Amino acid sequence: MRNVNFFLFIVSVLIVVLWTQEANGEVIGGTKRLIDKVNRKGPYIGIVIPNLFEMNPLLNYPEYKSSKLVIDVGGMYIVLKR
Questions:
Q1: Tens of pLDDT, residues 41-79
Q2: Strand pairing partners for 72?
Q3: Within 10 A of 31 (CB to CB), how many other CB atoms are there?
Q4: 35-72 exposure pattern, b = at least 16 Cβ within 10 A, e = fewer
Q5: How far apart are CA 2 and CA 10, in angstroms?
Q6: What is the pLDDT of residue 79?
Q7: Of 69, 49, 67, the residue nearest 58 (C-alpha)
Q8: What are the beta bridge partners of residue 78?
Q9: Alpha-carbon distance 73 to 9, whole Å?
């Protein structure tokens, strides 16, 4: 029975790996224009922050100097620093 479970596990993993397809995302509207503007002015370091709970300690850190540029992409904040 153990060999059968192991075989089924291996087959399942192979199916998942071999059947993966490419996924592409697109940013549109005002967010896209803001990203294009940043790309022209660059270079910037982007910090992806998934929620405000994790963003507040960064903003309160005395060594952190913000560029005052924050992009909200799909509910995740990207703080850019030059």
A1: 777 777 777 777 887 887 788 887 776 677 766 665 566
A2: 77
A3: 14
A4: beebeeeeeeeebebeeeeeeeeeeeeeeeeeeebebe
A5: 12
A6: 60
A7: 49
A8: 48, 71
A9: 37
